[in-house]
Amino acid sequence: MRIIPAIDIIEGKCVRLSKGDYATKKVYNENPLEVAKMFEAHGISYLHLVDLDGAKSKHIVNHKILESIASKTNLKVDFGGGLKSDEDLHIAFESGANQITGGSIAVKDPLTFESWLLKYGNEQIILGADAQEEKVAISGWQEASSELLLPFISKYVAKGIQYVICTDISKDGMLEGPSFELYRKIIAETAAVETNTSSSGVIDTIKPGIKLIASGGISSFDELPKLATLGCEGVIIGKAIYENRISLKQLEEFIIAE
Hints:
Helix 1 (32-41) packs parallel to helix 3 and helix 7 runs parallel beside helix 8. Helix 9 (223-230) links the parallel strand 14 (211-215) and strand 15 (234-237). The protein has eleven helices and 15 strands. The protein is globular. By secondary structure, it is an alpha/beta fold. The longest helix has 11 residues, at 110-120. 43% of the residues are buried.
């Protein structure tokens, strides 16, 4: 399971929110590049970078920070927040993103999101499926949609999506543990049955349907092996690192053990 620390950006600073509420903003570092380099120094290879200004403005804002991190570290960055147009996407990839995450766009403008999937492929486009009470939330979690989470994910799996980041908003930033049961349901719902015929007869094999990245609520190191056992492909960790609930040394040892 991949370890993916998160850096959320407001006004160029590394911040965290609780349940997506901008009023709960807490600044942890004024230099996101410094934080990214610290992650890299502990053997971490991946980064989840969120442009919260972009999510609010509905267009990319903090691409210069993305460019700085991508050019001055070897971290593989997935970037999200405010990506609404082909131009936004072009800027993100030109600035060094390895992958981008589309959430609101997948709800509000599915044709554009599907065109990105066709153009860039399912290794570079991640579906952001963030939910409150299993309904997809959009616009930086400031707005609820009518989309039910499981059918929403399944719809895009049918269109070829491979990577899905799912945040249970009620858990995000609360340090109360992730939504194990929700992730179990998603993995079960999207599992693919592959039928093979051999000399011993017909055998059905269950294969994972998506690469699910768990996000939100991570509070202790002990939760990581549980998520790996569930079948999560990756886990995004934010406040638990910044509040010293999980040390970078623990993450380094977990990565080595994997």
